[in-house]
């Protein structure tokens, strides 16, 4: 297939490496991601790390994304471990995150073509890639928007498929943790064959399954922990005067398991099943108001998910056809379904239900106190945990169709590529309290006609109210498990929403050589691109439509349908028109102190229908004074355009627990999030300077060292409820964020009665991020004892990661710090690395990799008594045997991840004890030792 072969590099829109592999030599030059101009060799000014599929799955047999996340450039990627307690942003599955700048700023490609989003927030689940056909993964670790368009701010991840594969390959494997949980299954098959001289067909199928595990199955981390002040009565916790300490066996005074009276004549009374009661035992006080050790107060139960369960099926097909000697066509289909399940938050009501005088379930002597004092009602604080956690189920169905023509006109290469992508995201969350039904059911009274306990709305004089609540079952809220199963079924419901995204993209490109210079030809690439995107989100709980509370007591007029998740409808679309050009100019070649000197430049103009035009560009160069050394530098302007969900998201109401810095009270409030159609693209300026070493006196050795800097301004941020509160407080009540906080009293009132009732959040171009550091990639390969010995080191040092949430906030240095679970979500270790050693022979292979996450300090916005979290090391081991089956094309392998079962460093947030494992889930793997065994065939 001559045309397809000679134009594949252009189709992949690839170029050369910067982070190098000793497995490749200059005589075996490969073509890698970084530009649209095809140039072989180690010539690219843009740093690129290349990892083969084989090496990635040796380190992480669970899949390529897990292998990539062991590379130090990836920080804070989403995966099953990070999917246990998140509803607002569905970055579930495996969503890659370069530099810790957020998954939305990492562009994902397959064979150099942009992948359509698989979630409605614009991210891509990398599990949906046909991994059985991936030859290598190329990671561009610098901005590349001039070459690829929006989102390539932190870099690009390009999954390169072996589209010329002929034969059959298959694999099957199973895994389990040393604790007998987290059972995994993975299997797949791929085949490629020719039909005649011009047609090539490629097919694959893959299945991935994992059971996950709960917090209780990781007792070393399930510690009912909390970060609390160390000085009782020491004022604001997390300050130098009252630094935080980690406290286990903690409780949260907002609620209790049995329920207690929050006010009224018998405030502090704990209700027990069977009509009993006693004084509440608060436990021992801590240095944080509202938190105690021991006692009756609430803490997160062990039934919460620590790692989500998932199942993914993918199918892939591709047909290449040589239309003529100089024209080739291809059609490619990729389809997938992913189901993710996690039992997340408990049924902790973050509001205080109102119990009215005359409640039929209230003990008679307590009712007598209400009557004597002429008290109309009191508040009940109870965590209704007898009904278990609130589970969630996500099903993502995605398909993408690629089609194109490519060919030659003289010395020029041309291509026309079309992509259509569609993704449907279905979310369901049962076991949620419906506010109106709950209010009706707990307002239980005696029917004066029959003496039976009934829901008060069934006695309402309005026939419509009586009809609406005709099936109401009285709910006894006093004591753990006091309500009947029928009452539970009546008040609970299922929150659902469905989001469909669609993308159509067409690109026309032309590339080749312009003129010959003494050092070589000037190469160019030009093209145009047009893209349309649409989003449609529907929901059964649109918070824009308030529930009818006629006939009910104790509810505000803006009551949503469900307790935890209420999702607004959204609908919108936009279009993008782009034109780009790129030049590669050789300046010198084969001269003294200039074996090669090249310049490379690119420019792209992008016109968004929603925000107008923006220009991105890149200018770089490489200089090889001798064959053994190559220097490179690149400067770029990059963008991240707002997603459709950023622009058009409808209101979504969730419950947020937060420490209000204004009143110093931890409270539960409604958080209302929505989109912003006035958003503009983020702007990033990036530098990268590096050197590639391939010493001729040490064959098989290669090393690259690259320094990088990324300055992002106008970053689109949705301040969390906590961040909104802090921003308003730091301004003294004058910041625009104060207008998004609803309080019952004026801002001047700092009493506990003035805690917020609602916080409204929306994305805005408000933040800045500046990061810089150094990437190191070194490898060595040599013959040894009838085989090959290979050593590879990846390491990243982050010198700076500065973030300013808004103009009224200070610039904070996060490099080497973590604030996850406290008052932010940034975790950036200064050092992260992986060192692997492997030996391969015809009969067997051994692979060992040591993974390191450097020391982290807790802070910097909070002060801890003991702020240092130690470096964490884990070891992965894979042994492969080649017993000679299938003519020697079969392998049996056995892998142990986290060989020594090392437990991650302990870390607790400062909001709700036991809500999540006691570590940093988005940084450390909480699985522990995991065994995987399987086989592969390839013939």
Automatic annotation (TrEMBL):
Q: In what ranges is there compositional bias, type Polar residues?
A: 1-24
Q: Where are the annotated segments for Disordered?
A: 1-26
Sequence motif TonB C-terminal box, residues: 922-939
Keyword Nucleotide-binding annotated: no
User: Keywords, A to Z?
Assistant: Cell outer membrane, Membrane, Receptor, Signal, TonB box, Transmembrane, Transmembrane beta strand, Transport
Record-level GO cellular component terms: cell outer membrane
Is Chaperone given among the entry's keywords? no
Tell me the domain of life. Bacteria
List each copy of the TonB-dependent receptor plug domain by range.
43-156
Tell me how this protein sits in the membrane: Multi-pass membrane protein
Q: Which PROSITE patterns does the record match to this protein?
A: TONB_DEPENDENT_REC_2, TONB_DEPENDENT_REC_3
InterPro entries for this protein: Beta-barrel_TonB, Beta-barrel_TonB_sf, Plug_dom, Plug_dom_sf, TonB-dep_rcpt-like, TonB_rcpt_CS
What positions does the domain TonB-dependent receptor-like beta-barrel occupy? Answer: 397-899
**Stored PANTHER family:** PTHR47234, SECRETIN_TONB SHORT N-TERMINAL DOMAIN-CONTAINING PROTEIN
What family is reported? Belongs to the TonB-dependent receptor family.
This protein is called what? TonB-dependent receptor
Q: What organism does this protein naturally occur in?
A: Parasphingopyxis marina
């Amino acid at each position: 297939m001559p045309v397809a072969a000679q134009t594949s590099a252009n189709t992949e829109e690839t170029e050369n490496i910067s982070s190098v592999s000793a497995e490749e030599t200059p005589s075996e030059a490969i073509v890698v991601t970084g530009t649209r101009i095809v140039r072989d060799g180690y010539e690219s000014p843009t740093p690129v790390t290349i990892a083969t599929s084989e090496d990635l799955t040796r380190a992480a047999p669970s899949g390529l994304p897990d292998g990539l996340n062991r590379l130090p450039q990836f920080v804070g990627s989403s995966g099953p471990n990070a999917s246990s307690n998140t509803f607002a942003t569905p970055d579930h599955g495996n969503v890659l995150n370069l530099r810790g700048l957020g998954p939305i700023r990492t562009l994902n490609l397959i064979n150099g073509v942009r992948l359509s989003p698989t979630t409605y927030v614009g991210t891509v689940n990398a599990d949906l890639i046909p991994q059985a056909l991936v030859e290598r993964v190329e990671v561009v670790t610098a901005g590349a928007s001039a070459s690829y368009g929006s989102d390539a701010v932190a870099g690009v991840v390009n999954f390169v498929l072996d589209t010329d594969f002929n034969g059959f390959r298959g694999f099957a494997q199973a895994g389990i943790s040393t604790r007998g949980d987290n059972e995994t299954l993975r299997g797949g098959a791929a085949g490629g064959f020719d039909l005649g001289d011009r047609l090539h067909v490629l097919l694959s199928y893959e299945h991935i399954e994992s059971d996950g595990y709960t917090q209780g199955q990781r007792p070393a981390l399930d510690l009912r922990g909390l970060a609390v002040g160390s000085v009782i009565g020491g004022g604001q916790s997390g300050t130098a005067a009252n630094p935080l300490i980690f406290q286990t066996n903690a409780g949260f005074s907002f609620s209790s398991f049995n329920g207690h009276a929050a006010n009224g004549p018998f405030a502090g009374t704990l209700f027990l099943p069977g009509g009993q009661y006693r004084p509440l035992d608060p436990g021992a006080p801590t240095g944080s108001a509202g938190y105690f050790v021991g006692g009756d107060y609430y803490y997160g139960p062990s039934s919460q998910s620590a790692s989500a369960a998932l199942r993914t099926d993918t199918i892939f097909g591709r047909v290449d056809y040589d239309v003529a000697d100089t024209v080739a066509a291809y059609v490619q289909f990729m389809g997938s379904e992913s189901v993710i399940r996690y039992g997340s938050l408990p049924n902790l009501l973050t509001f205080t239900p109102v119990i009215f005088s005359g409640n039929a379930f209230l003990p008679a002597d307590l009712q007598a106190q209400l009557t004597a004092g002429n008290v109309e009602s009191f508040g009940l604080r109870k965590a209704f945990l007898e009904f278990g956690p609130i589970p969630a189920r996500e099903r993502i169905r995605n398909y993408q169709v690629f089609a194109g023509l490519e060919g030659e006109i003289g010395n020029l290469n041309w291509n026309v590529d079309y992509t259509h992508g569609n993704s449907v995201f279905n979310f369901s969350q049962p076991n949620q309290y419906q506010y109106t039904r709950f209010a009706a059911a707990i307002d239980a009274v005696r029917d004066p006609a029959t003496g039976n306990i009934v829901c008060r709305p069934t006695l309402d004089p309005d026939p419509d109210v009586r009809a609406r609540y005709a099936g109401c079952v009285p709910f006894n809220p006093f004591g753990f498990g006091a309500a009947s199963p029928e009452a539970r079924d009546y008040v609970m419901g299922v929150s659902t929403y469905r989001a469909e995204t669609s993308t159509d993209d067409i690109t026309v490109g032309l590339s080749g050589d312009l003129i010959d210079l003494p050092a070589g030809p000037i190469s160019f690439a030009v093209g145009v691109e047009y893209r349309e995107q649409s989003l449609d989100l529907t929901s059964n709980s649109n918070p824009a439509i308030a529930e009818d509370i006629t006939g009910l007591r104790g509810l505000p007029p803006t009551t949503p349908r469900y307790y935890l998740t209420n999702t607004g409808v959204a609908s919108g679309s936009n279009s993008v028109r782009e034109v780009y050009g790129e030049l590669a100019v050789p300046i010198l070649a084969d001269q003294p102190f200039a074996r090669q000197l090249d310049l490379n430049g690119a420019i792209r103009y992008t016109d968004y229908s929603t925000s107008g035009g923006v220009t991105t560009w890149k200018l770089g160069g490489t200089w090889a004074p001798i064959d053994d050394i190559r220097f490179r530098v690149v400067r770029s302007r990059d963008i991240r355009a707002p997603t459709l969900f950023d622009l058009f998201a409808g209101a979504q109401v969730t419950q947020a627990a937060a420490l209000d810095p204004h009143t110093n009270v931890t409270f539960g409030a409604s958080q209302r999030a929505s989109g912003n159609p006035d958003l503009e693209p983020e702007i990033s300026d990036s530098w990268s300077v590096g050197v590639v070493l391939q010493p001729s006196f040490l064959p098989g050795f290669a090393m690259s060292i690259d320094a990088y800097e990324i300055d992002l301004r106008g970053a689109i941020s949705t301040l969390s409820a906590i961040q909104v509160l802090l921003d308003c407080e730091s301004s003294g009540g004058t910041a625009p964020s104060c207008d998004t906080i609803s309080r019952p009293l004026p801002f001047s009132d700092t009493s506990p009665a003035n805690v917020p009732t609602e916080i409204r959040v929306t994305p805005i171009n408000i933040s800045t991020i500046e990061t810089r550091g150094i990437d190191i990639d070194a490898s060595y390969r040599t013959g040894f004892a009838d085989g090959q010995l290979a050593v590879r080191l990846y390491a990243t040092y982050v010198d700076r990661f500065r973030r300013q949430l808004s103009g009224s906030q200070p610039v904070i240095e996060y490099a080497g710090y973590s604030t996850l679970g406290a008052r932010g979500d940034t975790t950036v270790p200064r050092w992260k690395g992986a060192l692997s050693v492997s030996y391969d022979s015809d009969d067997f292979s051994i692979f060992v990799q040591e993974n390191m996450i450097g020391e982290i300090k807790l802070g910097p916005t909070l002060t801890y008594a003991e702020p240092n979290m130690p470096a964490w090391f884990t070891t992965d081991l894979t042994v492969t045997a080649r017993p000679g089956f299938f003519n020697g094309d079969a392998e049996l392998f056995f892998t142990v991840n986290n060989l020594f079962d090392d437990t991650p460093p302990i870390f607790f947030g400062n909001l709700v004890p036991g809500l999540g494992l006691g570590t940093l889930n988005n940084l450390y793997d909480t699985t522990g030792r995991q065994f995987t065994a399987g086989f592969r065939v390839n013939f």
